[in-house]
């Protein structure tokens, strides 16, 4: 399979392509389901989650499916209430800010707290019938902590920064719990049938190089070391990681995700050619005129230089207003331009 071969830096007949958030709100098929079911209901109903996982595989020439779930799903079994407010994103309560809050968080067995996700993995794997591999995923400890401490998305992450600066001991205890949960969760997904795993550190880019190395990297490494026991390829993804790309690489993963803020060839040189890379089309380009979009796809492939180990993707998820025919076109262009 192209995607798995590229993860191992083996030669492929064409560059594999998949898209973060490829299963989701830009697709009419998904919106039809959302009219009947809430976000958490979709995630917690294995048959629906598996169906959403397969929607883009049926529609586009993608080389991998990614499980439909949410990175915050492990937080409710730990003791937090998770809600999705219309137009506001996720809300978590109570926010985790004191010793009592951290002590109250439960470390749980994924088969009990997230059994519905593992069943969705098993169902999706059967439904895919070997057409493309299935990617499972989890949130990195720093990103989970950012949501848990702030209680949802934040503009300045003031509470997170305060805990790291003023209570590094408490921060370490929180991150150790989150790392334990994420590592076990990824391993359980692989055992349920996921053929690759991705660790998302969506908010790591708010940190300085020194902060990342001290407050985030050791805990991501714990997760990826645990997930490596599965034997499946591991993708490590973050945004705004250019200031600490080397530290991000050293935290682990067979494949390092690269966002659009750094040229792919420059990123790969810094990461080293002993790792595969994933990326890095700017998601905003999906709304550009077709000739400009096609040239942007070609530019990413040019910078990859035909070297084995490149997986074409966006630098982040597909924006919700993206016309599906743009996603279809990009997948086809990647294969056409890179076929060898």
Plain-language structure description:
The chain has 340 residues and is an alpha/beta fold. The protein has a single domain, classed as TIM Barrel. 49% of the residues lie in helices and 11% in strands. It has a 7-stranded parallel beta sheet with strand order 1-4-5-6-7-8-9. Strands 2-3 form a two-stranded antiparallel ribbon. Helix 15 crosses helix 16 (324-338).
Low-confidence stretches: none
Return the structural class: alpha/beta
Work out the helicity level.
40-55%
What is the N-to-C succession of helices and strands? HHHHEHEEHHHEHHHEHEHEHEHEH
The chain-level mean pLDDT equals 97
Count, helices: 16
Number of strands: 9
- Which architecture does the CATH hierarchy give at level 2? Alpha-Beta Barrel
Share of β-strand residues: 5-15%
Number of domains: 1
Widest sheet: strand ordering: 1-4-5-6-7-8-9
**Name of the CATH first level:** Alpha Beta
Task: Give the radius of gyration.
Answer: 19 Å
Distance between the termini: 15 Å
Give descriptors for this structure.
single chain, seven-stranded parallel beta sheet, 340 residues, 49% helix, alpha/beta, two-stranded antiparallel sheet, TIM Barrel
Q: Would you summarize the structure shown here?
A:
It is built from 16 helices and nine strands. The protein has 340 residues and is of the alpha/beta class. The strands form two sheets. Strands 1-4-5-6-7-8-9 form a seven-stranded parallel β-sheet. A two-stranded antiparallel sheet has the order 2-3.
